[in-house]
Amino acid sequence: MAEQTSGQSNDRTDDLTGSSTDSPTDNGTVSSTDNGTDHPADALADPPPSARPALAERIETLFRVVRRPDGEPFSNEDVARACREATGETFSATYLWQLRTGRRLNPTVRHVEALAQFFEVPSTYFFDDEQAAAITRDLELLGALRDAGVRSVALRAVNLSPESIDTISDMIDVLARREGKSNAATDREGRGRHDGS
To answer: Domain residue spans in the chain?
Structure first.
C-alpha cells in the first residue's frame, strides 16, 4: 500500500484486490482498518436513490422486495454468506454493501451469477434495462401482495369476470388520483404552516 504524504487524509484505502478497508458497523460508524479509527457513518453516507448507478439500484430493489420466509429483510451478511457458498470465492458483506451503494460498480461474472441465484432472477436483470424493468414490475407486485389487505383484494378478485376486473381497476385509478391530490394538498398546507405562510 502506498504511504501517505503528510497532511493528507486517508479515510478510505483499497488493497491490490480492490477491496475496501472501510466497513459499515452496526453502531452507525464506519470502521477503518488503516489506522483503527472509526469515522461517522455520514462520512460515507449512501447516495440518494436517484444518484445510485443502475446496478446498485437493482440490487437494492432485490433487498427491499425479496424477503426471508418470516418477512424480515435479508442482511448483507446473509446474502454474502450464500454467495460465498455458491461460488467458493471471496464475497464479503462489505463488498455487497459497496455494490448496493454504488461504491463498487464492476462485480465479477461469478458474483453476479451468485446474486442472481440467491434472489432467483436471471443474471441479465442486473445489466439489461428492458429485462430489469419487467422483473422490477413483477417484484413490486410481489412486494405489494405481501401486504395482507392488497393480497385479500387480489384473492377475492380471482373469480370475477374481465369486465368486473376492469371496473375495479378503474375504481382503483380514481381513488389513487383522489388520494394523490389529497396528499399533495395536505403537503402544501403543512409547508405553508411551517413557512409562516
So the answer is: 49-148, 160-194
**Are β-strands 38-40 and 22-24 bridged in parallel, bridged antiparallel, or unpaired?**
unpaired
Side-chain half-sphere CA neighbours of 123 within 13 A: 8
Q: Which DSSP state fits 19?
A: -
45 contact partners, CB below 8 Å, separation of at least 6 = none
CATH superfamily of 49-148: lambda repressor-like DNA-binding domains (1.10.260.40)
Contacts of 29 (CB under 8 A, 6+ apart): 38, 39, 40, 41
Q: How many Å apart are CA 77 and CA 54, to the nearest integer? A: 22
CA 100-46-139 angle, 5° bins: 40
24 sits in which H/E element: strand 22-24
Q: Give per-residue pLDDT as tens, 66-89.
A: 888 888 999 999 999 999 998 888
Q: Look up residue 119 and give its amino acid.
A: F
Cell of 16: 491490490
Closest CA to 30 of 51, 50, 11, 58: 11
Q: What is the DSSP string of 127-143?
A: T-HHHHHHHHHHHHHHH
Better-scored residue on pLDDT, 187 or 15: 187
Q: What pLDDT does 177 receive?
A: 87
